[in-house]
Structure formats: structure tokens, C-alpha cells
Specification:
The complex is a heterohexamer, with 2 copies of chain A (98 residues), 2 copies of chain B (137 residues) and 2 copies of chain C (120 residues). Chain A is α/β, with parallel strands linked by helices and 98 residues long. Chain A has helices at 14-19, 35-38, 59-64, 81-91; strands spanning 2-7, 24-29, 54-58, 77-79, 94-97. Helix content of chain C is 32%, strand content 22%. In chain C, helix 3 links the parallel strand 3 and strand 4. The chains are: A alpha/beta (98), B alpha/beta (137), C alpha/beta (120).
Chain lengths: 98, 137, 120, 120, 137, 98
């Protein structure tokens, strides 16, 4: 299966995300999940960014929290709600929110 | 005539829940509490951000434009405008790799004179020690 | 065009997760899709009519009415969850239906995609 | 005898944290203390009248009325938080007052102990 | 005539929030969903507990006596009575040091015949793979 | 000061609790905090139990979740709501809920 995972928080996400197996796994950072794209805790990038080559962040949620695209990891693609709709219908068979 | 000090300690991230917003709005409510108190009695609030809560203090939050809600940035500036004491935990700011430039340190743009301080946790602990009651959000 | 079912659980008034669900619905409908919106648990608060607008809360009643006007959006609250909180039929926002939990499962049955926003 | 102020924040209907706060109030009053109970944010749901009893939810309206009858218990909801959720004066449970947030601070001022139940 | 499989995955602890309770009550609602469907159409629910969510499955919960609310134990037994498939993640049970004796494995006391299974996460993942939609609580 | 900390959850409690300093610090396990008294994750007792010699668990919350007093760490004292009221008024000047 192909699985899109909406990561909505900054803590306790890794345990679940690491265990999920899919032919294609996408990680979409929304809500307080956006901190994974922008914050380097203890100088290190979030381990969430290692979980998939398909990384997205919702620009509205990034900007509301005070970050700009220039501050995020280069592997993460900034998307709009409209892009998210296309990801949901065209790229992933199943979608979960954690 | 008495003053009671209340420490509002914010440890929650913004927006996903209402917790940090309610910390700010309740702390600001100290400005109107006299109507319930005797002459000369006062409530002195102290606001301190610790743990992930320091991420409430980032500049350039655009929640009003994008979601139509007052940003935490605006509330922090309002607190400074009203001369509330605002502390941001130094160890957490450093741990999360936030530069001082990125933090809301003053409310000059709306005419405020009071500044926030980046304080070692020991100083925040001292404020808790000298507070009458502690409210963790 | 496809159908998205969004299940919104636990308490979201005062949180931007509810705004997320509404904005995602708007974007999906703009692209021609249809959306079923299920409110359960504390999220049934969105179904309460007469919410007053304050700057500390996003005002979602208007966007929900606009979505309903497209004809491609259904919003249904869990009846038991609402009643337990004292939200009766006459307290319900215009256009919002109330059903038992099986409505959500039936909506999932015919959905192309389901986004279940759980947690707290 | 002393006064305990309990501030209940964020969404607690459907969660046992609200039951915790009510049971703690009962135990304190049984020992002769008085209790001020502040409802803010999503916790203002407790102030909604007409909550129906289901086995999946603790029924807290009766215990709250019993507490009020002791004369040692005050319960007050944040007015703006309630209005934002569409809970108006006429929707409010009997005996529950509504004030602005400064009421909570004033209650803390005169309290011997404050238990602030925040978070989510 | 179609059957759609829905996986209800419970990762939350019980009681502090309503999440796990709503997982159970919604899964059980699959028993009455036909009124909304065409003849022969069906919803097949699978319930799986993973992570800290396995702590919902402990026996001897007394929430009804102490707090007047249905326990998660009762809801899990009701699910088994209705022949729902209930899986409890083996790795999490072991990690948290829970003995099999302490887990709700059947509903024999209320006349149920279906048993819960302690399953390796790989099997739960397979159920997710073959489900039409995934609902994480 | 003397400080009573009501620990209400199983995750993310240690970071805050470890940093608090008080002349006397009490830890009272309530709500999902009771798992600290009863669960040994990976064979280890919860680090929360090392934070104070004054450890309590609310019996109602322990029992609702399926545990008996015989299953908890011997350092933790089981208390009722009535005991909790006495702790709040007699043993600690300040009380917090985390």
C-alpha cells in the first residue's frame, strides 16, 4: 500500500512512524508537526526527517508559527492546502493523522 | 494591603491546543482584577516560558492572516505593553537552537517599554519560589 | 471526482486542528471533490449554534455555511456525544445533521479517502 | 478551615480529569474547607445545562448541585470562553456563575492553595 | 455487494482522554451500519491496540464503580461478544512487562466465544495493509 | 518552598519534573500518571520514582485502570481523595498539575 502520514505534533511521533511499513510512505508535517522541519534540537535535525524521502510541510502551519521556507530543511517541500488535497487523492491510497 | 504573586508557567506548544493562549489571556487579566479586591490589594503576574513552551515566543507568527486568530506573538507583545514580567528559559532556547534575533524581546512597535528576558532556568525557579501560587499551562 | 470523509474527534474548539479540517474541506471542494464531515466526542462543539466571534477563536460557522451552500459538503454530529454535552436538536447549527456513530462508518464505506483526526 | 481554588482548563468532558476535580472538591468540602471552581477554555462545557446521562460519560451535574447546596462551593465559567462556544446565559447550569478571567485571579488571591489543571 | 474493512488502531491511553473509548464505540457501531448501506454491503471492523494503547486491555478495571463510567474493559468484552477481531500488539505487551494473564483475552463471562489475540506487530501491519481505511485513535 | 506535583500522564513528565527544585518535593501520581507506579517498561521501573522520597498514587485512579496495590512499587503510598486533601493543605505550600 501507499500511505500518507500527517504528523501533527512535535513529541512522541517517532515510535509510531518508525514501525509503519508501506511501499511508499509520505510524511506530511502539519499543526505542531511543522517544528520537525525547522527546529534542530541539541544541534540535530529531527529523526522524523529520516523516515521517508517524501517529506512535506503545510505552509500555512509553518508560517503561523513564525517560520519561513528559508528556515526549513531542504528535503522538505512546502505545500498548500490545495496541494495537500492532490497528495491525498493522487499519491496515497490511505491517509492517517498521528 | 497585600500583593499576591502568581507564576504563569507555559510549557505547551502553541495553536494545537488552547493552553498557551489561555496562559497569556489570564495573565493579562491581572490588569482588571482590582474590581474584585480590596483597596491596595494586588495580583502580580509573572510569565515564564520553559521547555517546548519557548516556541510560543517566536517572531513573525501570521496566525491572524492565515487563520483569523490572534497570534501568541500579539499576546506576548500585549503583555509587555502592560509591563508584565516575561521570562524565556535560556537553556531551552539554546537546546532548540533558537537565535535571540528570532525571539519576541520587546513591544516597541506598539509603544511598549518593558522587555522580555532570556533567563537561566534557575531564575525562573526563583520566581516560582517567591510566587504565592503556580499555574502550569 | 472523489469523496473525502473527515472524522473530527476530541476537543478542537480553541485549537487550530478544527480549522485545518475546515480549510482542507474548502480546498477539496474547490477541486470538485465532495466532503463528509463527522463530528464526534468533544468536537461536537462545532455543531453548537450561536457561537460568538472573538479574535482569540477562529469563527468557523460562516465557512461551514459556505461549504454547505456548495451542495458538496455534509456535516453530521454524533447524536449521543452531543446530547451528553447538553447540545440538543434545537441547539444545532443550521445544516448540521445528527446521527448515531454508524453514519460515520457508512460514510467511510463510500469514501475514496478517509482522514480520521483523532487524539486530543 | 482553608480555601482551595481549582482552575479547570481545556477540554475535559469525556475525560476523567473533570471527575477528578469534582471528587477532590467533594473531599475538601467534607473536611470543612471551601472550594472555588473555575472553568475556562473547553472546560466551560461543564457549565452547559441539560447534559444527558449516558454510561459512557460521568454525570457531573448532580454532584455539582450537591456541592453548591453545601454553601462552601462556588463554580464560575469564563464568560468569553463560553460565549465563543455558543453557550449563552440561558444555557448555563443552575448555580453556575459567569465572569471574566480576572475572577479566577481574584479567587487565587484569597486562596490558601491553587490547583490549576491545565494542559489538554 | 461489497465489504469494506476499517482498521481501528488504538494508540492512546484510556480515561484521561476519550480517544480509546470512541474507538471502541465506533467499531461496535459497525453492527448497525447496514441501515445506511445497500443490501449485501458490509463494514468489517478490526480493532488493534498498539504502543501505550495496549494498556486499555488490562483486566479488573473498576471505572464504573469508582467513576460511574463504562470501563474500557467492558467495551472490549462487548466487542468480543459481537465477534469483532481484536488484536493486542505482542511487542508492546512485552515491552511494558504485562503478563498475558493480566490481559482481557475473552468475554466468556458474558457469553462471548471470540477471543482476542496477542499478535506481533507485523500481523497488525498486515491488517492495515488489507484494510480500506485506517483510523488511528 | 514545599511543592506537591500531581503527575497526570505517562509520557513527557520527566523533563519538567527533573528541573523543579524544592526543599520538599512530593510526587502524587493521578490519572494516567498511575502507570509510573505499576508499569516496568523494558524491565525498568519508571525514572519518575527516583525524583522524590515522597511518592503517592491515587487509589481510585490506580484501580480504575486495572491495577491493585499489590502490583505497585513499594515506595509508593496509595492514598484516597481525602488523603490528597490533607496532603494539599498540610504538607505542601504549592501544588502543580503536570
Amino acid at each position: 500500500m501507499t500511505l500518507g502520514v500527517l504528523v501533527s505534533d512535535f513529541r512522541n511521533m517517532d515510535n509510531i512512524l518508525s514501525r509503519l511499513k508501506a511501499d511508499k510512505l509520505g510524511v506530511i508535517l502539519v499543526s505542531n508537526g511543522v517544528y520537525h522541519a525547522a527546529v534542530k534540537e541539541g544541534g540535530k535535525k529531527s529523526s522524523i526527517l529520516e523516515k521517508s524521502p517524501h517529506l512535506y510541510v503545510l505552509s500555512e502551519d509553518l508560517h503561523s508559527r513564525g517560520f519561513a521556507e528559508s528556515e526549513i530543511d531542504t528535503r522538505v517541500k512546502s505545500i498548500t492546502y490545495s496541494d495537500l488535497v492532490d497528495l491525498i487523492f493522487n499519491e496515497y491510497e490511505k491517509i492517517i493523522w498521528i | 494591603m497585600a500583593t499576591k504573586k502568581l507564576a504563569f508557567i507555559v510549557k505547551s506548544l502553541p495553536y494545537k491546543t488552547e493552553a498557551s493562549r489561555l496562559a497569556l489571556t489570564h495573565a493579562i487579566a491581572s490588569q482588571t482584577v482590582e474590581i474584585y479586591l480590596e483597596d491596595g490589594d494586588m495580583v502580580e503576574p509573572v510569565l515564564a516560558f520553559m521547555g517546548d513552551g519557548v516556541l510560543n515566543c517566536l517572531k513573525d507568527q501570521t496566525a491572524m492572516n492565515l487563520y483569523g486568530v490572534t497570534s501568541l506573538e500579539q499576546h506576548i507583545k500585549n503583555s509587555l505593553l502592560l509591563d508584565l514580567k516575561v521570562m524565556i528559559c535560556k537553556e531551552d532556547v539554546e537546546r532548540l537552537g533558537i537565535s535571540e534575533d528570532a525571539l519576541i524581546m520587546d513591544a516597541e512597535d506598539i509603544g511598549g517599554e518593558t522587555k522580555a528576558s532570556i533567563a537561566p532556568f534557575g531564575e525562573i525557579m526563583k520566581e516560582m519560589d517567591t510566587s504565592d501560587h503556580l499555574l502550569f499551562f | 471526482m472523489a469523496k473525502l470523509t473527515i472524522g473530527v474527534f476530541s476537543s478542537l474548539v480553541g485549537s487550530l486542528s478544527l480549522d485545518f479540517a475546515v480549510k482542507l474541506s474548502e480546498a477539496a471542494i474547490k477541486k470538485g471533490h465532495s466532503v463528509d464531515f463527522w463530528l464526534s466526542g468533544n468536537a461536537t462543539m462545532l455543531s453548537k449554534k450561536g457561537q460568538r466571534n472573538f479574535k482569540d477563536y477562529s469563527a468557523l460557522q460562516k465557512p461551514v455555511q459556505d461549504l454547505l451552500a456548495t451542495g458538496k459538503f455534509q456535516i453530521t454530529a454524533c447524536e449521543a456525544c452531543a446530547e451528553a454535552r447538553g447540545f440538543h436538536k434545537e441547539d444545532t447549527m443550521e445544516g448540521c445533521k445528527r446521527h448515531s456513530m454508524d453514519w460515520y462508518l457508512a460514510s467511510c464505506f463510500s469514501a475514496d479517502r478517509v482522514l480520521h483526526i483523532g487524539g486530543d
